[in-house]
Amino acid sequence: MLHPFKNQTFIDFSIEKNVAAMNTTLAAVEKQFCQKYPLVIGGERYETGDLLPTINPAQTDQVLGSFHRADEKLADKAIAAAWKAFASWSKVSARDRAEYLLAAAAEMRRRKMEFMSWMVFEAGKSWFEADADVSEAIDFLEFYAREAIRYGELQPLTPSPLPDEVNEAFFIPLGVGIVIPPWNFPLAIMAGMTSAAIAAGNCVVLKPSSESPLIAYRFFELMESLSLPPGVINFLPASGGKTGDFLVSHPQTRFIAFTGSKAVGLHINELAAKTAPGQKWIKRVVAEMGGKDTIIVDASADLDSAADGVVASAFGYQGQKCSACSRLVAEEKIYDRLLEKIVERCRKITVGPTREQKNTMGPVISRSAYESILNYIEIGKKEGKLITGGGKDEKAGNGFFIQPTIIGGVDPKARISCEEIFGPVLAVVRARDFSQLMEIANNTEYGLTGSIYSRNRAHIEQARRDFHVGNLYINRKCTGALVDVHPFGGFNMSGTDSKAGGREYLLLFLQSKAVAEKF
Fold it and tell me: Which of 154, 178, 423, 436 has the fewest other C-beta atoms within 10 Å?
């Protein structure tokens, strides 16, 4: 009998022995840099010679490893290997499939600092953010294992009014799918999408993000070490354009689980909607895309609490969470006082390589992201008033470091108020009253997360009803969703409201079958 699900606890780094253990682990991981990694199809290793390097964004001349990339021929082979494995994996009981996830969670818990260290180097996460990422991955494994068992049971039906008939309903897996995870939660979301799919009885081709293939490979190795049957997960680093499109368009692809940008998500959805010759199904797309997440603060709010929540939401992991607060809308009466408190807190943020515990804000993920964010800052300087930050952080070192930036006096329809930036840039908008706060909150094409800070019950209830986001937070930050506590997924151009970490999530990887037998 499994004990009830419980969220993983974080490491207390105020305890010196934990700090020492983390530093020791970071040093051990550093000794593993510069290796070459294969792609893995049906348990077999392949080397193509077409190498994808992965670098440390905090030290751009440091190569962490290189990955052999697949071409279309190998992508086709991976889909075939997954279908071969599906023939037997789909018949494994839900409880036995769940045991693999539970074993993986136990091993990841034991090696938590190791996975954290890879994230510090490959994704630029601070110790706290890396801890949260690994903890969420463990939560997904534990939670989806339990959900697989629950969905593996016969589903309740009303007894048949026909005396000579017996009826039952149950769930069966979909088949073979493509898992395309993001780099910003390189372990949690990748492991969550993959483990949900296989726990439901499917087999997958895992195409890791080109920005974080090393972390994905470490997860694949962990699953392989538990004797997961070959072909249940196929590890396939590949070009997101050519080979990625091939995988999505393949007639034998049954579903695509994607987390990433709106542009890529819409492209995947469009490709998946086109029926290929030989295709026997309508492909299912599970997509979580971007956001332009807003925190609104009315005149009744606790301004210290609001300032804490805004800074944590806007600059945690360099503003590179899809749930990050990228715009603040404050009521006119408290706008100046609130902004002053936010700036005060913002100036205490330490920027630098996250290998050092003291640095709470690291680099952005890549050169292209770095240049795009800096370009948006220049746009913002023309659309509003630069309050703090405003460019590169030259003191932080040889990496993609950007100062936490706040731009005030922004028009609600300005580009930096409406377009996703995905970096440490906060646009601040002034509203005359609560009615305008709500109007601005809903004026983008996104609908992922949002927060309201208020002590006015009527305002809170209106936001609960009318603030059109998949995840609404009241008097707290808009980041930090917990598995089975805050099922996560958004509306509009933020995705299919898939609600990762929720009790309906596994349904996205299952189909229902009803059987009636007459005696």
Answer: 154
Nearest-angstrom CA–CA distance, 267 and 282: 16
The enclosing H or E element of 22 equals helix 16-30
CATH fold match for the domains 38-289+498-518 and 293-482:
no
Determine the Cα–Cα distance for residues 313 and 478; give it in Å rounded to an integer.
6
Length of the chain as a residue count: 519
- CA end-to-end span of the chain, whole Å? 35
The residue ranges of every structural domain in the chain are 38-289+498-518, 293-482
Q: Which residues contact 338 (CB under 8 A, 6 or more apart)?
A: 297, 303, 306, 307, 328, 330
Q: Determine how β-strand 293-297 pairs with β-strand 325-331.
A: parallel
Residues in CB range of 96: below 8 A, 6 or more apart:
none
Instruction: Give the contacts of 164 (CB within 8 A, at least 6 positions apart).
Output: 518, 519
Under 8 Å CB-to-CB from 70, ≥6 apart: which residues? 39, 46, 48, 78, 236, 237, 238, 243
> Quick check: 308 and 301 in contact, CB under 8 A?
no
Tens-place pLDDT, residues 319-346: 999 999 999 999 999 999 999 999 999 9
Q: In this structure, which topology does domain 293-482 adopt according to CATH?
A: Aldehyde Dehydrogenase; Chain A, domain 2 (3.40.309)
288 an active-site residue? yes
- Distance, in Å, from the CA atom of 213 to the CA atom of 296, rounded to the nearest integer, reads 37
Exactly one of 122, 147, 322, 325 is catalytic; which is it?
A: 322
pTM more than 0.90: yes
Number of helices (H), then strands (E), belonging to the chain: the values are 15, 21
> What DSSP designation does 488 have?
B
| Closest of 299, 290, 220 to residue 259, by C-alpha | 290
Distance in angstroms (rounded) separating the CA atoms of residues 365 and 370: 7
Architecture of domain 38-289+498-518: 3-Layer(aba) Sandwich (3.40)
> pLDDT digit string (tens) for 109-124?
999 999 999 999 999 9
pLDDT at 397 over 90: no
Query: Rounded to whole angstroms, how far apart are CA atoms 327 and 452?
Result: 12
3-state secondary structure of 312: helix
User: Of 122, 136, 211, 288, which residue is the catalytic one?
Assistant: 288
Q: Put the strands of the sheet holding 449-453 in their side by side order.
A: 385-388, 405-408, 425-431, 325-331, 293-297, 449-453, 471-474
